Q: What sequence folds into this?
């Protein structure tokens, strides 16, 4: 049931991340935290949402989110005000994989709780 709600949220998050990634730098929202931490957190939430949305496919989710991290970084080459950096893609991918792993753990725990043990 929860996965039904997590799926559209995950896809909307992905669209929002790509929009923010390729939009002009002055449109980029900031939290006041270091940019690397913002990237890590954004992709961790994305990985978590996809893992919860697709609970039986967490390995595919981890690969997808990691690929999305690198594609989003490369997409910055389309904007004259942005720059693509391998280090940024690694931070994004790390956050995405971490979020997917947390989502996998949540899925396993919720299955145990629903099974009564």
A:
């Amino acid at each position: 049931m929860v996965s039904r709600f997590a799926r559209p949220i995950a896809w909307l998050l992905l669209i929002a991340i790509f929009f923010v990634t390729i939009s002009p730098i002055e449109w980029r929202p900031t939290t006041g935290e270091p940019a690397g931490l913002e990237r890590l957190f954004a992709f961790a939430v994305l990985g978590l949402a996809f893992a919860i949305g697709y609970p039986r496919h967490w390995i595919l989710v981890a690969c997808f989110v990691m690929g999305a991290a690198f594609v989003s970084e490369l997409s910055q080459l389309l904007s004259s005000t942005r720059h693509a950096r391998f280090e940024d893609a690694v931070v994004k991918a790390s956050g995405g994989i971490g979020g997917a792993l947390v989502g996998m753990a949540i899925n396993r725990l919720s299955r145990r709780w629903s099974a009564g043990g």
Remarks:
- Helices lie at 2-22, 35-53, 58-75, 86-115.
- The radius of gyration is 15 Å.
